[in-house]
Specification:
With 196 residues, this protein is of the alpha+beta class. Helix content is 36%, strand content 26%. The chain contains 5 helices and 7 strands; from the N terminus they run H-H-E-E-E-E-E-E-E-H-H-H.
Length: 196
């Protein structure tokens, strides 16, 4: 009995565990998947949140949605703080109110090297579950508001390049496809298989 308790404690205190997840890149069709609501906030979901935070900080980025790492859970992690010490975990986020208009230059871990101005609401009020499964309401403005809208879009299969013109989006897609072929010949082989 003692041993099993001890084992559990050791597992809980294993802070060295760090898992970096593979981020999908535009135009990967899996980025268009619609995420499904989380039914129970359990240890598996908390592990997913931890792995997503590790991946986001390592990238480095200020937000990451589960869709970007090929998970279908409605889960996002965000940290817009300077010190990178204020992680925000949102499960089943639901926007209650949008207000005002703001234009900000956005980037995305799934669209590397591309920064474009997007118009969004300036204030957002939302409801979500936190990592303990508790319902919380959040009011946010500025960068955090933009980040929240960007990440929730991911859960609905939407990318920030969708707000740009068709011409611009096509240029970005071609540029990224070329880069992905150059850095990883396997990607090219895989996409050829898909075409066939
Ligand atoms: Zn993104």
């Amino acid at each position: 009995m003692w041993y099993s308790i001890l084992d559990t404690l050791i597992l809980i205190r294993d802070d060295n565990h760090m898992a970096l997840l593979e981020i999908l890149y535009f135009p990967d069709p899996r980025l268009r998947n619609i995420a499904k609501p989380v039914q129970t906030v359990d240890a598996g979901i908390r592990q997913l949140l931890d792995d997503m935070l590790d991946t986001m900080y390592a990238a480095p980025g200020i937000g990451l949605a589960a869709t970007q790492i090929n998970s279908d859970k409605r889960v996002v992690v965000i940290d817009v703080s300077e010190e990178k010490d204020q992680p925000l975990c949102l499960i089943n986020p639901e926007i209650l109110e949008l207000e005002g208009v703001e234009e900000m230059e956005e980037g995305c871990l799934s669209v590397p090297g591309v920064f474009e101005t997007v118009q969004r609401a300036d204030q957002v009020r939302l409801r979500a579950l936190d990592r303990d499964g508790k319902s919380v309401e959040i009011q946010a403005g500025g960068l955090l508001a933009v980040c929240i809208q960007h990440e929730i879009d991911h859960l609905d299969g939407k990318l920030f390049v969708d707000y740009l013109s068709q011409l611009k989006r096509t240029r970005i897609r071609k540029k990224l496809e070329k880069e992905q072929r150059q850095t990883n010949p396997e990607v090219d082989a895989k996409s050829s298989q898909r075409v066939i």
